[in-house]
Amino acid sequence: MKKAMLVAVVTGSVLAMHAGLAGANDKAAPHWSYDGKTAPAHWSELDEANSACKLSKEQSPIDIIDSATKKAALPALEFKYAGGAAEVINNGHTIQVNLPAGSSLKAGDFEANLLQFHFHTPSEEKINGKNYPMVAHFVHKTVDGKLAVVAVLFKTGKENTALAPVFAALPQEGKPTPLASFDPAGVIPANHAYYKFAGSLTTPPCSDGVRWQVLKEPVELSKAQVAAFHNLYKMNARPVQPLNGRVVEVSE
Ligand SMILES: [Zn+2]
After folding, report:
1. Residue 13, pLDDT above cutoff 70
2. Cβ 111 vs Cβ 95: under 8 Å
3. Where are the domains of the chain?
4. Average pLDDT, the chain
5. Active-site residue set
6. What's the gap in Å between 236 CA and the centre of ligand 1?
7. Suppose 177 and one of 88, 99, 217, 218 were both cysteines; which one would form an S-S bond, judging by CB atoms 3.0 to 4.6 Å apart?
8. Is the pLDDT assigned to residue 17 strictly greater than 50?
9. Are 139 and 150 contacting, i.e. CB atoms less than 8 angstroms apart?
10. Res 19: pLDDT
11. What separation in Å is there between the alpha carbon of 180 and the centre of ligand 1?
């Protein structure tokens, strides 16, 4: 039993590493958090590897101001997601759902494999100065190692049945919950209109070069689902970062 659990934990951290989030799960990496002495304002001081948190000019998240976006003929997003055996983990910073191989995102010539998704509360992204109660980040990686994130914003409303198995699990740290079958496609809204910009990981080491796509249409979560997440994480959102001249494109 103990051994099986260890294997599961190792599997989870390998997946996270593939997602470019090695620092978050590496036991040797220094502690970071969302408040106190290891809060976002101090991330760059915690480890040399986190220098991008301070020095990069294309950090995420950002505040997307509609009047400052640029309409563009962006390629349609194709979510080639499929169901399969998944695993819900609590990595000490968020709840993350690790997904099996076989799902991918396509946008014109761009294609990347879906690795995992995880949550932040409130939404890290702001739209016209306002946060949503939560957001999910779907993390994809191309065969040559580039990351692409799709953000799905959540407003409160009806229970989200696609996410019900995840919210039923919400494990404590070190106790991954296997899901026999989970289909991430159920979380994606019908309307795929989106904002696109160049950004970064929103957690240490804040590596940039991440292709960001924020879906405009929010999906619903019940108040009970948001409350269940808040029982584990009250706040796990990095503050918005300066645009530094970046232009946010919006699909026509
Ligand atoms: Zn995230």
Report:
1. no
2. no
3. 2-251
4. 91
5. 93
6. 9
7. 88
8. no
9. no
10. 40
11. 24
Residue where the block lists tokens 């989970």: 182
pLDDT for position 56: 98
CATH homologous superfamily for 2-251?
Answer: Alpha carbonic anhydrase (3.10.200.10)
Q: Are 29 and 38 in contact (CB under 8 A)?
A: no
Report d(CA 142, CA 165) in Å as an integer: 28
| Residues near 241 by beta carbon (within 8 Å), at least 6 away in sequence | 59, 60, 61, 62
Please write the tens of the pLDDT for every residue from 76-128.
999 999 999 999 999 999 999 999 999 999 999 999 999 999 999 999 999 99
Mean pLDDT, range 131-150, rounded to an integer: 98
Distance 202 CA to ligand 1 centre (A): 6
How many other C-beta atoms are found inside a 10 Å radius of the C-beta of residue 184?
23
